[in-house]
Design goal:
The protein has about 270 residues and is of the alpha/beta class. Helices cover about 35% and strands about 20% of the residues.
Length: about 270
């Protein structure tokens, strides 16, 4: 850090699933996380801003506010030297996987459209403010503290309770990224020598959903697979059958690659760590 640095990093959504783990990682690595939520950005000088706030939804106005308007207000209020904006690989839409950063964004959901709008709006503002902007497009992030309604925590809760868990056949593929790996990537992006730009954030491993569920079950015990009822419910209409990213740019420009194998990450999740 330079002599003018405070070491403080404002973290929007610092109390959430990703933000909480990120704040812990920042503190461990000698930075001072300043978490904030809907009350707005802190009234203290911060060198950097990480936008990890805002959930999913189908309300256009709410999603635009959460993923475009709110981060823009925070940027204008804080005027940091660097911002890391957590977008989503969902902005790619249903183009052929694996998605690459040079692929044209074609979001098909309200959430994905709002994230793309946030990327564009912050890009224009950061250029005017001479603020370094790093946009990350994460894949399917998992780990402790995730919202219970999501696939892996929902399956975990059911199997722990000895209940059957109904799912689709699980032939669709996903790139599962451990939350601590994403936090480590954000830390790398906060370094002064990290080139600004757009990066896919994924494990680089495309995995059938059923394989992830089997791995989670195996981590719980030898009979847990019997609780999985794959094929009990139909695949959602219009669901993407492949959802994976190319991580070459991240590896080449940032020297970063997700270190946590899915087997290890799911075993830790099953242990509650």
């Amino acid at each position: 850090m330079s002599e003018t640095d405070t070491g403080r990093v404002a973290v929007a959504g610092g109390g959430g699933f990703i933000g909480h783990r990120l704040c812990a990682a920042l503190a461990t690595h000698g930075r001072w996380p300043v978490p904030f939520g809907r009350e707005g950005p802190p009234a203290v000088a911060c060198d950097a801003l990480v936008w990890a706030a805002g959930g999913r939804g189908d309300d256009v106005a709410a999603m635009t506010e959460a993923h475009m308007a709110a981060p823009l207000r925070a940027l204008l209020a804080l005027r940091p030297r660097r911002i890391v904006y957590l977008s989503s690989a969902e902005v790619y839409g249903k183009i052929p996987a694996p998605f690459r950063e040079d692929d044209a964004a074609s979001p098909e959901t309200v959430y994905g459209t709002a994230k793309q709008a946030g990327e564009v709006t912050l890009g224009v503002a950061c250029e005017a403010l001479r603020c370094a902007l790093v946009v990350l497009r994460p894949t399917v992030v998992y780990g402790p503290g995730q919202v219970p309604k999501m696939l892996l925590p929902a399956a975990l809760a059911a199997m722990r309770a000895g209940r059957k868990f109904q799912a689709t056949a699980g032939i669709q593929t996903r790139d599962f990224l451990h939350v601590d790996d994403l936090a480590a990537l954000v830390l790398r992006c906060l370094d002064d020598d990290a080139p600004p730009g757009l990066y896919n954030a994924g494990s680089g491993r495309e995995t059938p959903v059923r394989e992830a569920l089997w791995l989670l079950a195996d981590a719980l015990g030898p009979n847990a697979r019997d609780l999985l009822e794959l094929g009990a419910i139909p695949t959602r209409a219009g669901e993407a059958m492949r959802y994976a990213v190319d991580t070459t740019r991240c590896e080449q420009r940032l020297g970063w690659r997700a270190p946590t194998p899915l087997e290890a990450g799911l075993a830790a999740l099953a242990r509650g760590t």
